[in-house]
Design a protein that fits this description.
By secondary structure, the chain is mostly helical. The protein is built from 14 helices and no strands.
């Protein structure tokens, strides 16, 4: 009797366990369904935000491709009217954009490269070296960020004119070879270098330059890369300063040459729009290539390990 009862008990427990295991997936379904709904909602929100952000770019492309007068007569819809496929080649030749793109590229590379070098060296000094009044000097250095370009525009212009640097790459680049924002960002990255790495480098006989090149820069590479992208974008999009110190069309940057193209007759206003898209193309390519480094650099230190 006891044996039979034990067998029945074991059979009942096994049956209940089997039922519970079979029911587990059904019990987990509501939670999984809720997670799927939340994920779908997040994707819908992101898709809506993407459409909002991309809509102005789409409309710019539509205006560039459309024949101006028929497009205006049609009420400026969200789709192109009488597409002019040769508009980009016409804009490129009309504005001699090859030359002006090259001028902008040279100016941007000089400024971005110099800002990167000076910011790394200054950030290293403020992060690792000891010297009198370091914090005071750093505060004064950062305070220059509060000075808009309009404050220094006239003195810098007079200085460039007195040096005879109008319509030259020196005039376009020299006032921007160093920047406080780069020093601040890279210093913050250097401050995150672990003390043990610095001690180990000293034990290995590393001097300041060796430690900078072999340890500090590799560790903070995302921050440095993100600043390089920011510096490139800022230099490429400059308009006020190049407009002030270039009096000859031969040294005009691509941003300056867009203005006369945009002021064309009404039946050719899409030429200026197409030229603006051509000028924005290098920035788009840069952001696509370095988007991961940019995000990693801007979020560095936001999450503690």
């Amino acid at each position: 009797m006891a044996t039979a009862e034990s067998v029945d008990t074991v059979t009942t427990v096994q049956t209940a366990s089997t039922l519970d295991l079979g029911a587990a997936p059904h019990m987990a379904r509501p939670g999984q369904r809720a997670r799927n709904l939340r994920k779908a909602g997040a994707y819908l929100i992101l898709a809506a935000l993407s459409l909002i952000i991309l809509f102005p770019i789409w409309m710019t492309l539509v205006r560039a491709l459309s024949a101006p007068l028929p497009y205006i007569s049609a009420g400026q819809p969200v789709y192109p009217i009488q597409i002019e496929w040769d508009i980009f080649s016409r804009a490129f030749s009309r504005g001699d954009m090859g030359r002006h793109l090259m001028i902008s590229a040279v100016m941007t590379l000089i400024i971005a490269g110099a800002q990167l070098a000076t910011s790394i060296l200054a950030a290293y000094a403020f992060a690792f070296l000891r010297f009198p009044l370091k914090n005071v000097i750093f505060a004064a250095f950062i305070a220059t960020l509060m000075l808009p370009i309009e404050v220094t525009l006239i003195p810098n212009t007079e200085t460039i004119r007195s040096l005879g640097w109008l319509n030259s790459f020196q005039g376009l680049t020299v006032p921007f070879l160093a920047t406080a924002i780069g020093t601040f960002l890279i210093r913050q990255g250097f401050m995150g270098v672990h003390k043990d790495l610095r001690d180990a480098a000293r034990l290995d006989g590393f001097g300041n330059l060796a430690f900078l090149w072999r340890v500090a820069i590799p560790v903070t590479k995302p921050v440095i890369a993100s600043f390089a992208v920011i510096s490139f974008l800022a230099a490429w999009n400059q308009y006020l300063w190049p407009r002030t110190i270039t009096t000859e069309n031969s040294m005009a940057t691509v941003q300056i040459i867009l203005r006369p193209l945009a002021a064309a007759a009404i039946n050719e206003i899409n030429i200026g729009t197409a030229a603006a898209l051509i000028a924005a193309l290098p920035i788009l390519i840069l952001l696509i290539i370095f988007q991961r480094q940019l995000v990693r650099g801007l979020t560095a230190g936001a999450v503690k390990g």
